[in-house]
Amino acid sequence: MAKERMHRDPDQHPFVERPHRTLVVLSIPILCSLVAEPVTGLVDNAFIARLGATEAAALGAATALFSSCFWMLFFIGVGTHTEVANAFGAADFDRARRAVGAALVLAVGLALGAVAIVWPFLSELATWMGATGAMHVHTVDYMEIRLIGVLPQLFMHVCFGAMRGYQQFRLPLWIAIAANLVNLVLDPLLIFGAGTIPAMGVAGAAWASSVSQWVGAALALGVLRKRNSWVLGLHWDVMCRLFAVGRDMLIRTGCLTFFLVASTRLATRVGAEAGAAHLAVRRVWELSAFILDAYAMTAQSLVGYFLGAARVELARRVAGVGAKWSFGTGCVVTLLMLSGAPLAKNLLVPPEAWSLFGAAWLVSALGQPINSLSFITDGVHWGTGDYPYLRNATLFATVVGLGGLWLVNESADDALVQIWLVTTAWISARALSGIVRVWPGIGRRAPLRVSS
Predict the structure, then answer these.
(1) Partner residues linked to 197 by β-bridges
(2) In terms of C-beta density within 10 A (0-12 exposed, 13-18 middle, 19 or more buried), how is residue 362 classed?
(3) Range 351-354 contact pairs with CB under 8 angstroms and sequence separation of 24 or more
(4) How far is 192 from 199, CA to CA, in rounded Å?
(5) Neighbour-count burial for 22-40, b at 16+ CB within 10 Å, e otherwise
(6) DSSP letters of 438-450?
(7) What is the mean pLDDT of residues 150-158?
(8) pLDDT-derived band of residue 8, with 50, 70 and 90 as boundaries?
């Protein structure tokens, strides 16, 4: 357990002497591990787009449904991350092991319960998304197969959260790369077929994803068991904290995913071409979110660590350094998206949807610096355990966003652009609420507010 005992004295942490370098160096492996998943999603999209607008729109509806149904459960990784980081900062390694063990037990219950609830209603959910005919069939097929991968996804979230809480940032990277390479190899084989392997289309993409998730979960569990171990059990003290996190994060994540699925549903209702163009923009938007989330997760680890060591001033410094780097990176992402628009159109969008793509892409690109501030402040608040505030702020932003979607004119030529303008307003409300909680520190018991 020698690795556990690194950084027991917060004054010896490299962030104290080299804050900018430390934040960036720690963020790089997180960035690479986070980007692996959406890059694989882009590959899925590129393959499926070759089949036509109907299949691409079905994939968009199915992935949005999967996100809305199961992303709400991924609070378990965020809660494990903060719990382990706090325990690590306080040098309480027994608490860290119990936290991981309780989270793994909880993951099994959450996965089985969620799958049992969702599975009987897949057809109705696809219909609600606006999928009809062949699009409906593809959407249901994809979701049925992806249900197999829910449990390993939760296992990976727990393990990755624990590793980052221990500030072992490189391990999730190698595991994510291995899992996504499996997906990358299986995608063309199962989507288009090869030799005796039949072409499965959209269902093939689902099988590739599910198999790769089981591979990743097996690797993550094996590595974490060897390096840090865990103590399996209910551990009610830890469970109570995780359930408290779950209560607030379920509402918060439910609001986020409901807005995203509502915007995708609206785009699908506009037409198959709009749905296909929206999927391409959303895929890259998600990729940029994962890129910017690298700073958020690094901030979460460092803030949780320093608060565990009772060093509030260092935790606040992490927030400031993280915000500067995140905003700058958001500006770079904007420039990359603007220059890469032709490539994205040719790779990700069926030709019949090209006319709807450009303006929506432009709106999404210009909103990236705002996204960056929303994501970094989320990470800071995760590290402080300020989940009730995040819940309330996200509720407010989602009310604003859903009101905007209600005003979108589905029959207008610029309906897709309207959807992305509303999305930018939604993320702006999230960013503003996150910033004012830290600077100056509004609200009751703001964890990082400077005492007067």
Answers:
(1) 194
(2) middle
(3) 352/53, 352/273, 352/276, 353/53, 353/272, 353/273, 353/274, 353/276, 353/277, 353/280, 354/277
(4) 4
(5) bbbebbebbbbbbbbbbbb
(6) HTT--STT-TTPP
(7) 93
(8) low
Region for residue 439 given its phi and psi (left: phi exceeds 0; alpha: psi -120 to 50; beta: otherwise): beta
Q: Which of 122, 120, 118 is nearest to 139 (CA)?
A: 122
**Tokens 């199915």, located at residue:** 62
Mean pLDDT of the chain, nearest integer: 88
Helix, strand, or coil here: 194? strand
Please state, in angstroms and as integers, the Cα–Cα distance from residue 435 to each residue in 1, 375, 389, following that order. Answer: 38, 10, 12
The tokens 């009809």 sit on which residue? 132
Structure tokens at 17: 């002497």
Phi, psi of 188 (to 5 degrees): -65, -35
Return phi, psi of residue 194, to 5°: -165, 125
Residue 38's pLDDT is 67
3-state secondary structure of 197: strand
Question: Does residue 127 register a pLDDT over 60?
Answer: yes
Question: Distance (Å, rounded) from C-alpha 7 to C-alpha 227?
Answer: 17
- Residue 365 φ/ψ region, left for φ over 0, alpha for ψ in the -120 to 50 degree band, beta for the rest: alpha
